[in-house]
Amino acid sequence: MKPDEENKLQALPTLPVPLTETRLHVLEDYDVAFESGPVIVLRMGFGLAKQAQLDFRHPNMLARQWVVHEFKHYRDSGGKFWTSRAGLDVYFAVHKTAIQLVKYNGLSYPVVKIGDELFTLNVSGGGGGIWTDWIRNTASTCVDLPMKKLKVVAAQSLPVAEAVDLGVKLEFEPLSDAHLTKLNDDLARQCLGDLKPGMQLCLASGYTANGGETTLTILYREGQKFVAEAGWRRERIRVPLRCVGWAATAAANKLVTISSDAFNRVGLRDLMAPLPALVAAPPEMPVSASLPAYQLALPA
User: Fold this and answer.
1) Same-domain status, 17 and 87
2) What's the whole-model pTM score?
3) How far apart are CA 43 and CA 50, in angstroms?
4) pLDDT at 181
């Protein structure tokens, strides 16, 4: 949310969030429906670039789960496409009495106020003459919110024991094979700065170097590519970063990739096991474009 837009929304009136199943008539052409219950569990997602948020801990945090976030984009022609990235979801239980609904037609993105901060939720919505958004008892905020908003939610949230007494429970389904591969690869990519000459470079699935090699020896970094040697002939191959198999490369060089724990304090099953700790000081890579190199052989 841009600062000027947030300032305008801050000036709008608000409505209390009902504890019972209720459909609020917010504006002439806009309703918001709520489920019955005293608590809304907020899911807040962050990408790997948000290091401060990834490192944030709070005793009221219900769960931390590594996931793959998916995003829908629209082209100028009207078509749409999807992208995905690894990320972390954190969960807090906030009592509905601490939440106010802003009188604003969000069209699947209603705005609520917690403390002095505004939060845009990502919910399901639809309808004919009157658009209706449905805010469930577990709701997602927009991703990559600033640290001050994360701290406000944590400060306003219920202790874990109190949330459990009010019936809060979270169960997570295991990631699909495709999402687990994407998650591991994106997390392993964080070892990029730790790769240095002489280390192994493994190619992503479906890629081979000249002669069918899939594991190369790094010579040096060249911008968004590595220059590496392949096979007994020691042929030089230029490998774009997008063609690197990051999980295999991290494992081959025994590099630890990212630091964080995953847990679920109000359920029986975690999404995935805790992850190891990040290597602290990345060594410098020589950068040179003076040596000859050959293009990577792409799959047929």
Assistant:
1) yes
2) 0.79
3) 16
4) 82
